[in-house]
Amino acid sequence: MAALHMPWPGLVLLGVLGILQTQAEAQVSLQPNFLQDKFLGRWFTSGLASNSSWLREKKENLYMCKSVVAPMADGGLNFTNTFLRKNQCDTRTLLLRPAGPPGHYSYTSPHSGSAHAVWVVDTDYEDYALLYTSGTTALGQDTHMAFLYSRTQTPRAEVKEKFTTFAEAQGFTEDTIVFLPQIDKCLE
Ligand SMILES: *[C@@H]1O[C@H](CO)[C@@H](O)[C@H](O)[C@H]1NC(C)=O
Ligand SMILES: *[C@@H]1O[C@H](CO)[C@@H](O)[C@H](O)[C@H]1NC(C)=O
């Protein structure tokens, strides 16, 4: 079974989906007065929504992953993600560059060299963060994703509800919203 488990939750998905370029600005707002310093540190990817057919096929096999967020000299963020892959803990780093107002970033794929937009839509810094991304896949499909990050591995029911409400407002249907199960590995 373990070999079938897909190890790409959270922003790691941006690399896997082969995002090519940023599309027109999405209809999302940013966390007002976003304080990047308070957003740093450890988060768990506990929910995601995506309208890619890839997620629909793989969603049963996705697990929670750990992200450690550190500041970059250019004002961006270093997201170091740790997840279980082939029975080992694997680590992948995504570098988000600042893209204008605080809380708005772009991710450039090291493979295609192209950018993807990332927004921190809502966070209380101590409990949860809702992120939204938008771009185009290598196959030319527009795709958007929403992520729930939580400081603990067991997000409160209110936080999960908040994520569902947010994702539905972005047009994600119920079958494209998943809460990722905890595992006993790689989250330390
Ligand atoms: C990102 O953070 C990781 C973990 O601390 C570190 O190993 C890596 O060098 C950092 N990458 C950059 C480009 O700063
Ligand atoms: C995903 O959503 C975007 C934005 O709403 C849309 O343009 C795209 O066609 C959708 N893709 C799929 C595979 O449904």
TrEMBL record:
GO biological process: mast cell degranulation; prostaglandin biosynthetic process
Known catalytic reactions: prostaglandin H2 = prostaglandin D2
Family: Belongs to the calycin superfamily. Lipocalin family.
Quaternary organization: Monomer.
A Gene Ontology term for the protein's cellular component: perinuclear region of cytoplasm
Signal peptide as annotated in the record: 1-26
Name recorded for this polypeptide: Prostaglandin-H2 D-isomerase
Top-level EC class as recorded in UniProt: isomerase
Domain Lipocalin/cytosolic fatty-acid binding: 41-183
Known EC number: 5.3.99.2
